[in-house]
Structures are given as C-alpha cells and as structure tokens.
Amino acid sequence: MKKIVMKFGGTSVGTGENIRHVADLVTKYAKDNKVAVVVSALAGVTNSLIETGCQAKKSDEKHIQTFTAELRKKHTDAISTAITSKAIQKEVAQITENTIAELEKVLTGICYVGEITPKSKDYVMSFGERLSAPIVWGAIKDHKAESQCFTGKDAGIVTNSNFGEADPLMNFTAHLIRERLSPLLEKNIIPVVTGFIAADQDGVVTTVGRGGSDYTATILGVALQVDEVWIWTDVDGIMTTDPKIVPSARMLPQLSYQEAAEMAIFGAKAMHPRALGPVSKENIPVRIRNTAHPENPGTLITKEPIANAKEAVKAVAMIKDVAMLNVYGAAMVGAPGSYAKVFDVLGKNSINVMMISAAASEANISMVIKRGLLGRAVSNLEIALQERGGIVSEVTTEDDVAVIAVMGANMKGTLGVASKIFSTVAKKGINIRMIAQGSSELNISFVVKEKDGAAVVRAIHEEFNLDKN
Ligand code: ASP
Ligand code: MG
Q1: Do the domain assignments include residue 242?
Q2: Ligand 2 centroid, distance to 295 Cα (angstroms)
Q3: Ligand with an atom nearest the CA of residue 11
Q4: Ligand 1: which atom is nearest the Cα of residue 211?
Q5: Ligand 1 within 6 A of 211 CB?
Q6: Whose CA is nearest to atom 5 of ligand 1?
Q7: What spacing in Å lies between the alpha carbon of 46 and ligand 2's midpoint?
Q8: How many CB atoms lie within 10 A of CB 257?
C-alpha cells in the first residue's frame, strides 16, 4: 500500500475517451494504494482562454459567445463519452453550465473595462481546470469509486499574490491540505484537485505558472507526505535527446532532481521546472509516466541517481527560437555596475535572459534570449543606454542560432568532458559562437547556427554513446 499523488496532463485528459482511460488507471491503482488526483485543463483550453481573454479587452462580445459555445461543446462531449451513468452526467453537466456562465460574465466584464490585468488573467485561466476536474471526478465515480472534487483553493493551496507565477506559502498550505484531504485518503475516498490554480491569502484566484499542474502535484505530495508523485503525460519519460533528431534516443530510467530540473528548463517538456522544488527538499520521488503506455515504468526522479552513476553526460538538447544579443562597450571595462545596468533594462522590460557569457576583458557581454523578444530587447537597450550615458557603444544580434545544452550531474569533476564536446563539434566543421558552463558543472551550453543544431546533437549523442545503456 503506497500513498501516491497522480497528475494527469492536458493531453491525458484531452477527450472523453482519454478521461475514461484516466479513470480506469486511477481506480485500478486506488484498489491497493491511497491515491489523490491532480488534473490539468483539457488540451488547448488554457491557451484558448488566454487568447479570448486578451481579445475580450478589445470589446468583442460576439467573439465571447462563439468561444463559450465551443468550450461548452468540448466539455459536454467529453462528459457524454467519459461518463456512462445518466445521473452523474447530469450532475457534472450542471457544474459545467454554471462554470461557463460565470466565465461568460468574467469575459464580458473584461470586455467592458477594456483591460486585462495579471489578476483577472489568472481568474480567466482558472476556468480550464475548473471545467476539467469535475469530469474526471464524474468518470471516477462512474467507476464505482468514491471521490470528491476540489479547486486548488478549496484543497488548501494558499500562495503569494504573484499572479501568473504564484508560489505557495508552503507551511500554511501543507497544514490546510492535510486537514482537508488526509481524512479522505484514510477512508479511501479519491480527492480530485484542479492543477495550476490556487488562491492568495485574500482568497483571490492565482495560478502557479504555465504547465503548473505538476507543481500542484508536488505541493500536494509534500503536504500529504506521499511515497511517490506520478506525472502522467504523453511521453514515456525524459529522453537522452529529442527522438525526432536522433531516432535511437533512449529513455532515461533515472535522474536526480537537479538533472531533471535542468532538463525541464532546457525544454524536455516533461516537467514544470519549479515543481521539483518542494519534493527535492523532502526527498519524495517523482515518476514520469505515459498514459498511453502504463506498462512502462517511466523516468524516476530521486535525490541521487543510482543507475548509470558513471555516465558523465546523460542528455543533449537543442533549444530553438532563440537569439543572441551582444553588447559591446569599452566603457564597461572596470566600471562597477555596468553589467547591472544592462540587465536592469532587460529585466524592467520583462526580457528573460536564458544564457550569459562575458569575457574577462569585460568589453563584451553575450546573452541568449527568446527570438521573439529580440526587437524589444535591442530597442530598449538602445534607448536606455543613450539615456544613461554611453557605457554601451554597440548592440549586435544573431537571430539564426540555437543553444545546445549538454547535461549530466557527473560532468562535475569529470575531466575532459568539455574538450570532448568541443572537439566533436569541431570535427563536424561547425563553429561555436558562445559558450557557458555554470559552476554547478551540471551542464555545458553553447550556441551554434540553427541550421547546424541537429547535426551537433547527433554527433554528441553518438560520441557519448547516449543510445547505449
Ligand atoms: N493548464 C495549465 C497550462 O496549460 C496548467 C497545466 O497544464 O499544467 O499551462
Ligand atoms: Mg496544459
């Protein structure tokens, strides 16, 4: 008998059939274990809510009607496939109806006010999970299991008021969750909790960041002191690289929290990067599993990786849609605070810097940012730096680049990894534009032209034998 939090992602609950399958899995495991469930919104719903919310501010009431009609259809279709009992169907349909009526009012409100604030955006985004969770709850009850449905707020998740990226007040949250959900688990009642959404101390709806249902799951896992958190998704686990680039890419059976977090940041979309924070402190294992292949054990994330502990390099990833931004200025040399000025401009304009490298000569900083932010970054740097008295003389950009990230916890202290990586790239006749290695030595990242990215990934995958155990 284990205590497990199971989170199901958007594709795992994408249709009524999928939701039935989820209910099969949950009730199967709940026979011998104590299970709490966390659900995402139906695939695509969060995106469409954001889109409509943003359009609503341009006063488009007709669009709101069309949108909510589609949303109603999507969810009522799912109800009729996922649930067989007419009584349960009716009960869930009523919740759906009320929730959509509320959403209509919210969107109309935004439409009249003509603006969407981070606070109201969180409220709009919360409807995805508020619509999906009751259907999963209904499907579980349809399987003759006892279940109770909660919003993140009702389950007891209290966050700060950092709308869009809220973090839980963990001690208070853990106390409330234990108080509300533990008695249910004791009685083998399956709690179904909306992922992604919570509330701040004033009870205002917050969200914990895109893809945040993982985070909800690990918060619950820590509060309930479970044996494992299972992240059910549409991939078998975390892989050595993208199988579209290297068909022989291999599933990684085991990773450390640090490695998995690193990979999440670098786009192995199996995991929300902040989600590992709570569980790594408490040493609660996380397992990534595929709803379509429940027979696979998936990737297990624990404190120390046991298997393959000798491997220095475990995975290689290519991050596309990025650009390189180079800032030059002789006046930066030996001038304390000059880097701070550059990053201050970027930070104030909400431009996230993914990678940095600065030579000891101090006359140049190179940065990698999302490609779509390049225009904004350059224009703001130019304006601000003119105003602040010319520490920067020139800003150049390259928008046809990709980052290659090579990862593995045992790179730390292993000699020769960097030289092997760079000579592999050199042998391909490919030029490296920028390099960064954090002192954690968990990853080495470098920039190449995007057209060369796939070849570099393949060469490194082969050189380090990543396709072999
Ligand atoms: N529905 C939210 C999103 O799409 C949260 C999640 O799916 O984990 O970002
Ligand atoms: Mg989602």
Answers
A1: no
A2: 24
A3: 2
A4: 8
A5: yes
A6: 211
A7: 6
A8: 22
Q: Does 321 share its domain with 447?
A: yes
> Does residue 357 have its Cβ closer than 6 Å to ligand 1?
no
- The domain of 427 spans 315-463
pTM for the full model?
Answer: 0.86
Instruction: Find out whether the beta carbon of 10 lies less than 6 Å from any atom of ligand 1.
Output: yes
Residue nearest ligand 1's atom 2 by CA: 211
Taking the CA atoms of 317, 318, 322 and 328 in sequence, report the sign of the dihedral they define: positive
Judged by its nearest atom, the ligand closest to the C-alpha of residue 214 is: 1
Atom 8 of ligand 1, residue of closest alpha carbon? 211
Test site for ligand 1: of 213, 218, 234, most ligand atoms within 8 A of the Cβ: 213
The CB of 152 under 6 Å from ligand 1? The reply is no
- What torsion, rounded to 10 degrees, do the Cα atoms 310, 311, 312, 316 define? -170
423 falls within a domain: yes
Output the domain CATH number for residue 151. Answer: 3.40.1160.10
Q: 97-106 contacts: CB < 8 A, separation 24 or more?
A: 97/72, 99/127, 99/130, 99/131, 99/134, 100/68, 100/71, 100/72, 100/75, 100/127, 100/131, 102/127, 103/68, 103/71, 103/127, 104/64, 104/65, 104/68
Provide the domain count of the chain: 2
Which residue in 237, 276, 266 sits closest to 253, CA to CA? 237
Distance 463 CA to ligand 2 centre (A): 35
Report how far ligand 2's centroid is from the alpha carbon of 406 (Å): 27
Per-residue pLDDT in tens (0 to 9) along the chain, 469 residues? 999 999 999 999 999 999 999 999 999 999 999 999 999 999 999 999 999 998 888 777 889 999 999 999 999 999 999 999 999 999 999 999 999 999 999 999 999 999 999 999 999 999 999 999 999 999 999 999 999 999 999 999 999 999 999 999 999 999 999 999 999 999 999 999 999 999 999 999 999 999 999 999 999 999 999 999 999 998 888 889 988 999 999 999 999 998 888 887 665 566 787 899 999 999 999 999 999 999 999 999 999 765 555 778 999 999 999 999 999 887 777 778 888 888 999 999 889 898 999 877 777 899 999 999 999 999 998 887 777 666 677 899 999 999 999 998 888 878 899 999 999 999 999 999 999 887 677 889 999 999 999 999 999 999 999 998 6
Ligand at minimal distance from the CA of 195 is 1
